Amino acid sequence: MKVRKIILSLILFFSGYSVSDVYKCTIDGKPVFTDQPCGTNAVNFKALNVVSPVTKGEVKEVNIEYSSSKWFVGHAGYKKALKTSKLYKVPMFVYFQADWCRYCNILEKELLDTRQGKGVLRKVVKVIITPDNSLKEDRLFKEFGGTGYPSVFIKKSSVEVANKYYLLKKKGNTSVAKSISYLKKVIRS
């Protein structure tokens, strides 16, 4: 009888887990995020260590440390990310970008897509939103108070208002990404 309970518990525990691939492709020189592979130049953001997002029902507390490379995508992804953030009691890293934005490319190349950047971001629920894609995403961008790209907000699971952070800095006539230590500080604050 005990064995049955353990097996049933394990089945129920693991049945909610899901994996979703996000591909970053370059089309006409612009980065595009999609759920479909797009040729030989695609970069797959497949999650290696996936924790389950909450999709239905009540959010219950868990005692598992959040560690995931998964990026939630778009307005629907934001809703799932909110639930996941509450469930694991970790902040959300909300990144508004545009496919045509050169500053977004700098931020991704020099900070977010680096090995160190990915390591720091594993401890937060990540959402990437492109307001150009839909009215819902544009509305969400405006609700956050976004005014330009890239816009990065950290939303604590217990706080309603998200804080905006500037992860780029001027260096001469150009912009460069701020340091990994600054990214760590932003996430801890």
Structure description:
It is a single chain. The protein has 189 residues and is of the alpha+beta class. It has helices spanning 2-15, 74-88, 102-112, 115-121, 135-144, 180-188; strands at residues 23-27, 30-34, 43-44, 71-73, 92-96, 125-129, 151-155, 163-165, 168-171, 174-177. The protein has one domain: Glutaredoxin (3-Layer(aba) Sandwich). It is 35% helix and 22% strand. The strands form 3 sheets. Strands 4-6-5-7-8 form a 5-stranded mixed beta sheet. Strands 2-1-3 form a 3-stranded antiparallel beta sheet, with no helix packed on it. Strand 1 and strand 2 (30-34) form a beta hairpin. Helix 4 packs parallel to helix 6. The longest helix is centred in the middle third of the chain and has 15 residues, at 74-88. The termini are far apart. Mean pLDDT is 78; it is low at 10-19.
Any key phrases for this structure?
189 residues; alpha+beta; Glutaredoxin; five-stranded mixed β-sheet; 6 helices; 10 strands; 22% strand; globular
